[in-house]
Amino acid sequence: GVSKAYAMTGWRIGYAGGPRDLIKAMAVVQSQATSCPSSVSQAASVAALTGPQEFLKERTASFQRRRDLVVNGLNAIAGLDCRVPEGAFYTFSGCAGMLGKVTPSGKKIETDTDFCAYLLDDAHVAVVPGSAFGLSPFFRISYATSEAELKEALTRIADACARLS
Q: Which of 37, 116, 123, 164 has the most other CB atoms within 10 Å of its CB?
């Protein structure tokens, strides 16, 4: 697809290559599951795929730096466990070590949703509970932002976690 590499999220354009029978079957499923992409989306995707590609190396390196910053920052917080993601621009961190803890206001954190709500309310950091993806107790963070903003978010998360008892 063109969503991640070319910053075209929302354009919903993908492509595939493979054995003719497999691609034919995929086309049948796709034709029944979605409508056709707009001509503008198609033209933009062609331009992205056939245009200059040099920027992709720097973009990839930038995302790797931000990924490593977030993974290392989360793993430095007791009670959080973050694996290195294999794609996209999200981390998916375990927060089982935070369950059962109590916020400064006296609310017990019982779920990943509680933990995410605490981070939003107390640290002003928006993360998405893993339960939204059927995977609890985890939470997702996007690192598709500046390193400065990520550092600030990690500091706020660490401080909020330190306030739990």
A: 116
Residues 94 and 147 in one domain: yes
Tens of pLDDT, residue by residue over 132-159, are 999 999 999 999 999 999 999 999 999 9
* Pair (35, 108) in one structural domain: no
**82 touches 91 (CB < 8 A):** yes
Whole-structure pTM value: 0.82
Residues 47 and 72 in one domain: no
pLDDT, tens only, 91-132: 999 999 999 999 999 999 999 999 999 999 999 999 999 999
Going along 50-144, which residue ranges are E strands?
81-82, 90-94, 128-129, 138-142
| Chain position carrying tokens 């070590």 | 97
Q: What are the residues whose beta carbons fall under 8 Å from the beta carbon of 105, sequence distance 6 or more?
A: none
CATH of the domain at 157: 3.90.1150.10
CB-facing half-sphere around the CA of 82: CA atoms within 13 A: 23
